[in-house]
Design goal:
With 234 residues, this protein is an alpha+beta fold. The chain is built from eight helices and five strands, in the order H-H-H-H-H-H-E-E-E-E-E-H-H. The protein is globular and about 45 Å long. The two termini are 24 Å apart.
């Protein structure tokens, strides 16, 4: 995977937002704990007892595991970008509802769009985001902690908002919220909000103008070709 160069003038706040955005996605989409009720002791020995299907337990278990992995393999990932790319692509695999999130991002532009075109856009957007900001994961402070604060049902329980916060070593806290919906027997994440900034709304605003002038398929192709980039810090 070719890694794009980040802009040189990135503030610490912006870098933290980028890192947390990617970490939030990776934590939310970790495949090892997606099917919580079906997880075997061999797949998740330490987490199986605490991840029996509730969205908040999934978020907490996955977040803690991702943070611990990043801490443990920080030196390896810094010296071997390919290993970091593999880690991200493996984790960002199952639990994130890419297609539903993509339809929300597309908004009015997605009305009547084929499932195939939506999938093209969804995959291109996710890959652009991870490729551009994956290395920002390594900017995390040593000793980062994750705490789940609440789980709030919305729309009669069809959607759940899990509110959490990342606690940095210096005492600073950053709120990270997840919007999840149930698809079949599993809970899937479709939006992540870091410091109140929504992934869906950020990218809906970013891609509105391009989609006014190009088809969904063309915008997806531009993302793939690097002619356009998903900007998580807008």
């Amino acid at each position: 995977m070719k890694r794009s160069q980040s802009a040189t003038r990135v503030s610490l706040r912006g870098l933290t937002y980028q890192a947390l955005t990617v970490a939030a996605f990776v934590a939310a989409t970790a495949p090892a704990l997606v099917h919580a009720q079906a997880a075997t002791p061999a797949a998740a020995p330490a987490a199986a007892a605490t991840t029996q299907g509730t969205p908040s337990q999934l978020v907490l278990a996955n977040s803690n595991r991702i943070v611990a992995t990043l801490e443990k393999r920080r030196s390896e990932f810094k010296s071997n970008p390919a290993a970091l790319d593999k880690f991200i692509s493996t984790e960002f695999n199952t639990m994130f509802d890419r297609d539903y999130a993509a339809r929300l991002v597309l908004g009015r532009h997605g009305r009547g769009a084929s499932d195939a075109d939506v999938k093209l856009f969804a995959d291109a957007l996710a890959d652009s985001l991870m490729s551009r900001y994956g290395s920002a994961l390594l900017s995390f402070d040593t000793g980062l902690k994750v705490r789940v604060k609440s789980e709030t049902p919305l729309r009669g329980g069809a959607i759940v908002k899990v509110s959490s916060e990342y606690l940095r070593a210096g005492g600073q806290t950053t709120p990270v919220d997840y919007l999840m919906r149930k698809t079949g027997a599993n809970w899937q994440v479709f939006d992540v909000m870091v410091e109140g900034v929504s992934f869906v709304q950020t990218f809906r605003n970013q891609f509105d103008a391009p989609l006014n002038n190009k088809s969904i398929k063309q915008v997806a192709a531009d993302l793939r070709a690097g002619k356009m980039q998903a900007d998580a810090a807008q």
